[in-house]
Amino acid sequence: QKEVEQDPGPLSVPEGAIVSLNCTYSNSAFQYFMWYRQYSRKGPELLMYTYSSGNKEDGRFTAQVDKSSKYISLFIRDSQPSDSATYLCAMSDYGQNFVFGPGTRLSVLP
Amino acid sequence: GAVVSQHPSWVICKSGTSVKIECRSLDFQATTMFWYRQFPKQSLMLMATSNEGSKATYEQGVEKDKFLINHASLTLSTLTVTSAHPEDSSFYICSATREYSNQPQHFGDGTRLSIL
């Protein structure tokens, strides 16, 4: 089993839809959880950074962490064509051990 | 805050030459910098982790004599691809974490390397 698994997509949704992106992981030592957005030929951009279980909201983005299920999600409300990108989940323990998911390609169609 | 600048953004050079890529944290001190390689439509592949003032830690299968990493200051790390060949053509991305523990990685915009 891979340390972090993520729906590969590609995922296509109409503009205005609610998007749900998900990752599962196996290492219970992970405490910090991140979501990155990567446009083509650009570096990943940090969207959300959360610690332990719970929800965090920032504008149209909501990150959820359920440590008991080892499951994290990113929700995008009122999706826009500019949200079309690859989304990477990432997590780390208390040290420098970062693990990234393989990414989900999202297309928001106008 | 947390801006990471990577230079150059695109380089094309002949086989056999060495190429240096710079990664700078512009508004914070980065105790740790990471170097990744990414092939089209694939995820990030960690190449090495470098801490300021010490030798880089390379991932298994990455040739340290081929990919030289220097992290001489808290704001600058360099990756030199020595004697580059066409198979080294790829997208190279650096990232940095702040000096405090438990911080996320902040990425540069990547360098597209094409070896002819």
Number of helices of chain A: 0
- Gyration radius of chain B (Cα, Å) is 13 Å
Q: How many β-strands of chain A, per DSSP?
A: 11
Taking the sheet with the most strands of chain A, its summary is: 6 strands, mixed
Q: Mean pLDDT of chain A, as a whole number?
A: 93
Question: How much β-strand is present in the residues of chain B?
Answer: over 45%
In helices, the fraction of residues of chain B equals: under 10%
Low-confidence stretches of chain A: none
Based on Cα principal axes, name the global outline of chain A.
globular
| Strand residue percentage of chain A | over 45%
Distance between the ends of chain B: 37 Å
Biggest interface, chains and residues, is: A-B, 23 and 24 residues
Mean pLDDT of chain B: 92
Q: What are the segments of chain B in which pLDDT stays under 50 over at least 5 consecutive residues?
A: none
Largest sheet of chain B: 7 strands, mixed
Q: Name the structural class of chain A.
A: mainly beta
**Multimerization status:** heterodimer
Computed CA radius of gyration of chain A, to the nearest angstrom: 13 Å
C-alpha geometry of chain B: globular
Please trace the helix and strand order of chain A, writing H or E for each element: EEEEEEEEEEE
Task: Tell me the span between the first and last alpha carbons of chain A.
Answer: 37 Å
Features:
A: 110 residues; mainly beta; 11 strands; B: 116 residues; four-stranded antiparallel sheet; globular
Explained architecture:
The complex is a heterodimer of chains A (110) and B (116). With 110 residues, chain A is an all-beta fold. Helices cover 0% and strands 56% of the residues of chain A. Chain A contains no helices and eleven strands. Chain A has strands spanning 4-6, 11-14, 19-25, 32-38, 45-51, 54-58, 61-66, 71-76, 85-92, 98-100, 104-109. In chain A, the strands form two sheets. In chain A, strands 2, 4, 5, 9, 10 and 11 form a six-stranded mixed beta sheet that branches. In chain A, strands 1-3-8-7-6 form a five-stranded antiparallel beta sheet, with no helix packed on it. The termini of chain A are far apart. By secondary structure, chain B is mostly beta strands. Chain B has strands at residues 4-7, 10-13, 19-25, 30-38, 45-51, 57-58, 67-73, 76-81, 90-98, 106-107, 111-115. In chain B, strands 2, 4, 5, 6, 9, 10 and 11 form a seven-stranded mixed beta sheet that branches.
